[in-house]
């Protein structure tokens, strides 16, 4: 049974580490990439877009063999497509740590015991039980002042079926709002809180190393690489909208949850196999691992992530996906780069001109 209440264990617990301090990470590696990603894409046997709005599968390439230039181009592809997916990777855990280090400072989840990675396991039981966690959409620990940016999950073992992960584009979720709602949400802030995760962790026998926090982040954020407007919604951690009254906040969050859950056209669903990898942009993608229906002891993964910038909202420099497409006159579902945005050139969109 899940306990979300104040218990003796909760009252007696004192986390050992101080709160994290805000910091400015090094420049995003995507800015160092060749906007056409020639080195990465020429090394791969195929780069297949899996859906119109999110997800590209790279084939015929090993993460363990990437040059620094290819790593930067991979970051740009992740920023543009939300998630990049690969199968049959031979990368070791040590090599995965080194790859993460290329992109920034290793992030650490409050419940993460090993400083270098999180071990992800299966989720089962009564997944519809009150307070059951793990099946809801989320971006990983968005309550941090510097939430993760680039996040890589590699599954080392998988059940024959079950435990798929669904990724949804928050760039597209913002774009599909009516102009009236877009305007209404711009400038608002969501209060992202780790209270519930903290309580559930301790009551479940965990020992989180930081106290819970609540951080106000823009409800619509500017992606630093693409300069696209991104909905910064997170049904797992947002408790309320800062600027709204109680009932207003409650109903707007209920609307946003329905908007997200209805958006099957803006998702990609990834069926894991041993050695498969999802490398996503935690700033512009929410995800959920489908729980239940399989032997949870058969699912295990290793997740590494790096700290991103503090989410920001820059209305002067950002535009919606539709505005981007209209301005550039691109066909398809293009998510261009900041470079393409600033120069106003469609050449900045990537090797095939439309990502
Ligand atoms: Fe997650």
From TrEMBL:
Keywords: Dioxygenase, Iron, Metal-binding, Oxidoreductase. It comes from the Eukaryota. Residues 333-355 are annotated as: Disordered. SUPFAM superfamilies: Clavaminate synthase-like. Residues 48-293 form the TauD/TfdA-like domain. Its cofactor is Fe(2+). One of its GO terms (cellular component) is cytoplasm. One of its GO terms (molecular function) is 2-oxoglutarate-dependent dioxygenase activity. Belongs to the TfdA dioxygenase family. This is Alpha-ketoglutarate-dependent sulfonate dioxygenase. The lineage of its organism: Eukaryota, Fungi, Dikarya, Ascomycota, Pezizomycotina.
């Amino acid at each position: 049974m899940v306990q979300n209440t104040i218990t003796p264990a909760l009252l007696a617990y004192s986390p050992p580490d101080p709160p994290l301090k805000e910091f400015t990470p090094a420049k995003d590696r995507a800015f160092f990439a060749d906007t056409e990603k020639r080195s990465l894409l020429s090394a791969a046997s195929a780069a297949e877009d899996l859906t119109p709005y999110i997800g590209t599968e790279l084939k015929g390439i090993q993460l363990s063999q990437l040059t620094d230039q290819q790593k930067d181009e991979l970051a740009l592809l992740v920023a543009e497509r939300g998630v990049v997916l690969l199968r049959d990777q031979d990368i070791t855990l040590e090599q995965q740590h080194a790859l993460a280090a290329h992109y920034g400072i290793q992030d650490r989840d409050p419940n993460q015991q090993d400083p270098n990675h999180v071990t992800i396991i299966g989720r089962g039981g009564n997944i519809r039980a009150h307070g059951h966690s793990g099946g809801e959409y989320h971006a990983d620990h968005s309550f941090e002042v510097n939430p993760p940016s680039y996040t890589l999950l590699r599954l080392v073992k998988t059940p024959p079926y079950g435990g798929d992960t669904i990724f949804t584009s928050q760039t597209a979720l913002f774009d599909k709002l009516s102009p009236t709602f877009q305007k209404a949400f711009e400038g608002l802030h969501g209060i992202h809180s780790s209270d519930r995760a903290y309580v559930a962790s301790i009551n479940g026998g965990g020992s989180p190393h930081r106290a819970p926090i609540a951080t106000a982040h823009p409800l619509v954020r500017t992606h630093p690489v693409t300069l696209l407007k991104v909905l910064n919604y997170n049904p797992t951690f947002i408790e309320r909208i800062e600027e709204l009254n109680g009932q207003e906040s409650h109903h707007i969050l209920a609307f946003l949850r329905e908007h997200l859950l209805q958006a099957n056209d803006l998702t990609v669903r990834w069926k894991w196999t041993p050695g498969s990898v999802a490398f996503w942009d935690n700033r512009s993608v929410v995800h959920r691992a489908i729980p239940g229906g399989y032997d949870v002891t058969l699912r295990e993964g290793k997740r590494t992530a790096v700290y991103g910038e503090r989410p920001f909202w820059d209305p002067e420099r950002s535009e919606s996906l539709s505005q981007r497409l209209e301005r550039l006159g691109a066909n398809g579902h293009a998510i261009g780069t900041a470079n393409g945005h600033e120069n106003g050139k469609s050449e900045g969109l990537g090797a095939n001109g439309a990502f």
